[in-house]
Amino acid sequence: MNILLREAKILDPQSPHHNKVVNIHIKDGQIAAIDKKEHKADTIIEAKGLLLSAGWFDMKSHFNDPGNEHKEDLASGAAAAAKGGFTGVATLPNTSPVVQTKGNVEYVLSKSKSYLIDIYPMAAVTLDTNGEDLTEMLDLHAAGAVAFTDGEKPIWHTDMMLKSLIYLQKIGGLLINQAEDQLLTRFGSMNEGTVSTILGLKGMPTLAEHLMIKRDLDLLKYAGGKIHFSNISSKESVNLIKKAKKKGLQVTCDVSIHHLIHTDEDLMGYDSHYKINPPLRTEKDRKALIKGLQEGVIDVIVTAHTPQDEENKKLEFDLAGFGISGLQTMLPSLLKLGKELEPSLWIEKVTTNPRSILKLDLPTIKENQIANLTLFDPKAKWTLNDQSNKSKSRNSPFFNQELTGKVKAVCNGAQFQTFE
User: Fold this and answer.
1) Angle 231-233-237 (CA atoms, 0-180°, nearest 5)?
2) For the whole prediction, is pTM greater than 0.85?
3) DSSP assignments along 164-213, one per residue
4) Where is the Dihydroorotase catalytic domain (predicted)?
């Protein structure tokens, strides 16, 4: 590997070259030089007008492998992630079987060695993610699990939540919960509010999220430890977490890109591509989430990549499955935010922050560092279609639409790939 990126603008607040236009010489998987000089290279990439950041990391993706490989498998998920600009992904345990044994963790880690991106398995907190009996979390940590979560299911059992917070303190482990009181959201298919009333659909109230967050914060204050709230979606959730941080509690959170650019009004046409959980909320909630990112209350932006086959989406709205396939459209979606959230604000939310929360090595653009990089063009246009889509699933509201913002290349150590 001997590559020269010519005249790229670096976007990395951790780098001394932040906001500078320079040449980056990559040799044998490392950044050999960052300057304005010409370097001999086997491959020269003209990067004028392009932005170069540390490699992106997604903290919430379904790869469905093993068990539902017809929706996505590790290979297709890795390919979609790389083309979306990611060099690392943390995968949810909601597979079949659930990632809850050392063998399950080792299966993901062993298969991921052959891919361009790094895949980090998160393991289940409770057996089969049913919320009733704890997994062997200490053994799973030793096997390589980077965090513990029941994924798309909330940890509803209060005693299990309390014990998990206590047990994980022995290893400094991270507990992740998607805050939802499922008794309040049962049979619901979208946000409870004016739009759900107009459409005649059962709503899912924000109260279901707030109650769970309040419960977990009280348990955190009581037991100690640390907790990460996954996929928060409402104004009140932002306020609760903001207050908890001010009190010194070890709490972090993320928001999906979908909740930053869409609202429940996008469901007026009963388009099941917009059906996700937690559901799209109101414009008031969306603006509060943006403000939460600006103020540092929300630490991470995730894709919440949830592949679904057509049989799960081409149904009556209330019967359709939840989820959007979001890895490849992360950059165009972020750029849709425009001045609300400029790249200088969101870049850490998709690079260093998720890795820091998971205690992973932090890539940065400095000489003699491993080259973990994402090169992207914020103005290039492309279309997500059957030719460009690397995922096995097509459940995206952007399918067959022209999008602005394209990843041109990713580098992960000795592996480098460009995209046309």
Assistant:
1) 100
2) yes
3) HHHHHTTTTPPEEE----HHHHTT--EESSHHHHHHT--EE-THHHHHHH
4) 51-237
